[in-house]
Amino acid sequence: MAVERHALAPGYEISRLLRGGWQLAGGHGPVDRARAVEDMSKFVEQGVTTFDCADIYTGAEEMIGEFRQRFERERGRDALKALKVHTKFVPDWDKLGSVERGYVEGIIDRSLSRLKTERLDLVQFHWWNYAAPGAAETALILRDLQKTGKIDRIGATNFDTPNTKALIEAGVPLTSMQIQYSLLDPRAENGMVQLAREKGFGILCYGTLAGGFLTDAWLNQPEPAEGTLTNRSLIKYKLIIDDFGGWALFQELLAVLDAVARRHGVNIAAVAGRWMLDRPQVAGIIVGARYADHLAADLEIFDVRLDAADRTAIEQVLARRQGPRGDTFELERDRNGRHGRIMKYNLNAA
Ligand SMILES: NC(=O)c1ccc[n+]([C@@H]2O[C@H](COP(=O)([O-])OP(=O)(O)OC[C@H]3O[C@@H](n4cnc5c(N)ncnc54)[C@H](OP(=O)(O)O)[C@@H]3O)[C@@H](O)[C@H]2O)c1
């Protein structure tokens, strides 16, 4: 089946499966740059025409820029127009409170240059610390840059519900909100989904496969011992599994997903992805990849339709979910907490 598409805004269409770029930044195993760039065309050929990256994903914008150039050379400018590249603007923690236009424009210009484009398709704004003033003012600088033509659409990432509302009320024209939202992490349902419905922005989910945990690869596997995970996403999502209710409950979920997947002739990742695409206000899911190795398995998302029996079986496990609780990114905002301690806060300066 074809990759579904979604109009995130009038005249702005994305593939509902987006290819994530964090896994290209190091920290997820070695990356063969030439192979990674080469493999990007396989995603586009299959209909995955929307890519996600960030100013702070080391090397990812450059690789996508190289791919854009090659793609244009081979396919022409019109074909390139179908490709949407979503990046982020993540001011450093240490800079919050003193962000000026020159700082914002410098980072946006760098993204333009790395991505080899004259206009960024979507810039997703992040603000580490609500105690530092200037979030809305900074986002309004992005709006100014939108007016000058450097940015097409403005989104945000990892905001909670009240601060998203505040951004919108300050006049930031928000097209999308990128947050962790998955079978393991329902925090978006504590306010963000409702706000998205009221204000008309789309939700772009990460964490759909929990960094690879919600796939066939981890079915019936023992709990990884502390300190043995080296991949940054697996470290991140193992904390979410702990909050969800622990390894035994997670394995119960995988077993149910596996049974559903087998019934439909697909794999666990396909069911986990389909579940999220069926949630209200979800515009798309961002699945991370270094290469195209898992592409065929991930495309099975579009081969499966979940029926009432599938939903009941999955919901019976989710009913015993313990957490994570609170608003979106609330746990992660505690810099000294379990989730906050593993993050890097000043990558733009680096
Ligand atoms: N805004 C934020 O704070 C934020 C945070 C995290 C992520 N993101 C975005 O979301 C994207 C996705 O990241 P994520 O954290 O949500 O990770 P994810 O998509 O849940 O998991 C990606 C990992 O799963 C593996 N994988 C994919 N399909 C698989 C399959 N069918 N079977 C086995 N393994 C499979 C990939 O392996 P390979 O490495 O071998 O390809 C990759 O390591 C990122 O690239 C980034 O663009 C944003």
How many helices in DSSP terms? 12
Question: Mind telling me the CATH superfamily name?
Answer: NADP-dependent oxidoreductase domain
Poorly predicted segments? none
Q: Looking across the biggest beta sheet, what order are the strands in?
A: 3-4-5-6-7-8-9-10
Outline, from the CA principal axes?
globular
Strand and helix order:
EEEHEHHEHEHEHEHEHHHEHH
CATH architecture, please? Answer: Alpha-Beta Barrel
Mean pLDDT equals 96
Radius of gyration: 19 Å
Bound ligands, each once = NADP nicotinamide-adenine-dinucleotide phosphate
Secondary structure class reads: alpha/beta
The largest sheet is: 8 strands, parallel, barrel
Question: Care to describe what's here?
Answer:
It is built from 12 helices and 10 strands. The protein is of the alpha/beta class and 350 residues long. It has one domain: Alpha-Beta Barrel (TIM Barrel), CATH 3.20.20. Strand 3, helix 1 and strand 4 form a beta-alpha-beta unit. Helix 1 crosses helix 2 and helix 9 packs antiparallel against helix 12. The site of NADP nicotinamide-adenine-dinucleotide phosphate has 30 residues, from strand 10 and helix 11. NADP nicotinamide-adenine-dinucleotide phosphate binds next to strand 10 and helix 11.
What is the secondary structure topology, with strand pairs?
Layout: E1 5-9, E2 12-15, E3 17-20, H1 33-45, E4 50-52, H2 60-75, H3 77-81, E5 84-89, H4 101-115, E6 120-125, H5 135-147, E7 151-157, H6 161-169, E8 174-180, H7 192-199, E9 202-206, H8 232-244, H9 247-264, H10 268-277, E10 282-288, H11 295-299, H12 308-318
Parallel strand pairs: 3-4, 3-10, 4-5, 5-6, 6-7, 7-8, 8-9, 9-10
Antiparallel strand pairs: 1-2
Bound molecules: NADP nicotinamide-adenine-dinucleotide phosphate (NAP).
